């Protein structure tokens, strides 16, 4: 089984998971792979948007449901949490839409928003729209800048399967480390 076959078979699932946990880097790489025909463009956009949507919806629900839990309290102690809440209080709808585009606030923001009085249905609607825009922007960035990236880094087509494998392995290792780290603190 070739690496190209693996990407064709599991690339969209990897993009879905990577967009939710790693974010822009994986999504741009997904766009590069679409540029080279290893993934289809619109399914890549959809996978990235869906991964981002699901992850942020889960983080929101964690903030909503587990406000008093140690995990949320730990997040509340971080300066980024206070920053996210302050920005949310000034412009709730704009911030809810834009947080995924703001460096350093991507993960903590939906948890912070979950601790507020924003209705779950309101977050769901804004999150869906923002995730769609985000997926389109970052997959398109990789897709349309593919030729420029090739000029900078040489023939990326030959490296795309390797990059896909490395990204997939990094996502799996990151998830494993996160799970082990989380279990270690619960014990």
Task: Explain how this protein is built.
The protein is mainly α and 187 residues long. The chain contains 10 helices and no strands. It has one domain. The chain is globular, with a radius of gyration of 18 Å. The relative contact order is 0.17.
**DSSP strand count:** 0
The string of secondary-structure elements, in order, is: HHHHHHHHHH
Amino- and carboxy-terminal Cα gap: 41 Å
Percentage of residues in helical conformation: over 70%
- What's the alpha carbon Rg, rounded to whole Å? 18 Å
- Report the sheet with the most strands, covering strand number, pairing sense and barrel closure: none
Structural class: mainly alpha
Low-confidence stretches: none
Number of domains: 1
Mean pLDDT: 88
How many individual helices?
Answer: 10
Strand content is under 5%
Principal-axes geometry comes out as globular
Task: Pick out its properties.
187 residues; mainly alpha; 10 helices; 82% helix; globular
In short:
This protein has helices spanning 3-21, 24-35, 41-65, 70-76, 79-90, 92-98, 108-114, 120-144, 146-153, 156-186. With 187 residues, the chain is mostly helical.
Element layout with pairings:
Blueprint: H1 3-21, H2 24-35, H3 41-65, H4 70-76, H5 79-90, H6 92-98, H7 108-114, H8 120-144, H9 146-153, H10 156-186
Helix pairs in contact: 1-2, 1-3, 1-10, 2-3, 2-8, 2-10, 3-7, 3-8, 5-6, 5-7, 6-8, 8-9
């Amino acid at each position: 089984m070739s690496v190209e076959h693996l990407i064709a078979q599991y690339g969209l699932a990897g993009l879905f998971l990577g967009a939710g946990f790693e974010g822009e880097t994986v999504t741009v790489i997904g766009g590069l792979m679409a540029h080279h025909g290893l993934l289809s463009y619109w399914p890549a956009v959809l996978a990235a948007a869906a991964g981002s949507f699901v992850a942020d919806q889960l983080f929101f629900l964690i903030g909503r449901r587990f406000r008093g839990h140690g995990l949320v309290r730990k997040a509340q102690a971080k300066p980024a949490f206070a920053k996210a809440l302050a920005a949310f209080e000034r412009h709730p709808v704009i911030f809810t839409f834009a947080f995924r585009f703001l460096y350093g606030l991507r993960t903590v923001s939906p948890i912070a928003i979950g601790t507020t009085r924003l209705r779950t249905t309101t977050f769901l609607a804004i999150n869906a729209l923002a995730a769609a825009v985000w997926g389109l922007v970052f997959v398109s960035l990789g897709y349309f800048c593919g030729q420029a990236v090739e000029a900078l880094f040489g023939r990326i087509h030959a490296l795309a399967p390797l990059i896909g494998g490395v990204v997939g392995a990094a996502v799996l290792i990151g998830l494993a480390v996160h799970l082990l780290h989380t279990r270690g603190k619960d014990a």
